[in-house]
Amino acid sequence: MEDRPFCSKILLFGEYSVIRDSMALAIPYKIFEGQLAFKKELSPTKDMELSALYYYLREMERDGKLSFEIDLEGFFEDVIRGLYFNSTIPRGYGLGSSGALCAAIFERYGGDQYKNNEDISQLKIYFAEIESHFHGASSGLDPLISFINRPILIQDKKMGVTDLPRYTHGAGGLFLLNTGRERRTEPLVNLFLEKCKSPEFSNLCNNVLSPITNRCISSFLTKDTSSLYEFFRELSDFQYRYFTPMIPKIFQELWKRGLKSEDFYFKLCGAGGGGYLLGMTKDFNRAKEILKSYDISPLFQL
């Protein structure tokens, strides 16, 4: 049996605001991927990551906390035989490295009864149970996207598969900037939740951030690029003003420069703190020249 690869993901819009019930749009990112494989040479040491995941799932099963069936015996035997997750997905970048791993384990050991399950809400629950091993708590969204390999739209607290529009190859676009820094999601989310205890900050998130995010998603999905540029700038400005702790310090001046010159705008791509920034520009060639000392990658031409 040859296991298929599982790709990384990008939360295009909805970071933090989705916690306040805004819309969110997450997409597969096929540049990076991982797949289960066996070491070509037998090794006396087991893969520590997969071994730890096995013991976690075994304890969950014994405690009656798993809501799905999984072949743990087969999983453990394969770990002994040299199973590992061969992945190009960078860790600590918010691209779903652990999500892709969970999706791969679920497909190989969860049984055929789940492979064609169209109830993605139920699948999300299964994946949350597996990925909680890595994060303490998980929404299950990252492994779900890797598993179904389709964009997912969250709207009115409901989740569904969506299609991305086909854009003509314009001069502008969305792009990624690699900060070259790993980060951990949990402390940043905890900081956001703590800030939300302030009525003033909570009101800003509910009545300013969430509507801007919703407008960005709606404009993107309807190919209203002129509105998208406007709302993306508003989102960039909001995050620069109120999410400073989530923006790496060495990129704050560059972020401000983009807002002032309007040559490009940045927003967080996920929790922030490192990983990637998501950029938008009306002239990608110009932005690429200005940012030539940084590692940038085009995502969508608009």
Which band does the percent of strand residues land in?
15-25%
Helix content: 40-55%
The CA-CA distance between the termini, in Å, is: 41 Å
- Look at the helices and sheets and give the structural class: alpha+beta
CATH topology of the largest domain: Ribosomal Protein S5, domain 2
Output mean pLDDT.
93
Morphology call: globular
CATH architectural designation of the largest domain: 2-Layer Sandwich
> Unreliable segments (pLDDT under 50, ≥5 consecutive)?
none
- String of helices and strands: EEHHEHHHHEEEHHHHEEHE
Instruction: Give the count of helical stretches.
Output: 11
Which CATH class of the largest domain is shown? Alpha Beta
Number of strands: 9
The Rg value, from CA coordinates, equals: 20 Å
How many domains make up the coordinates?
A: 2
Biggest pleated-sheet summary: 5 strands, antiparallel
Structural features:
single chain; 302 residues; alpha+beta; Ribosomal Protein S5, domain 2; Alpha-Beta Plaits; 2 domains; five-stranded antiparallel beta sheet; four-stranded antiparallel beta sheet; globular
Task: Give an account of the 3D structure.
By secondary structure, this protein is α+β, with helices and mostly antiparallel strands. The chain folds into two domains: 156 residues, Ribosomal Protein S5, domain 2 (2-Layer Sandwich); 129 residues, GHMP kinase, C-terminal domain (Alpha-Beta Plaits, 2-Layer Sandwich), CATH 3.30.70.890. It contains eleven helices and nine strands. Helix 1 runs antiparallel to helix 2 and helix 3 crosses helix 6. The longest helix has 23 residues. The chain is globular and about 60 Å long. The protein starts with 5 loop residues before the first strand and ends with a strand.
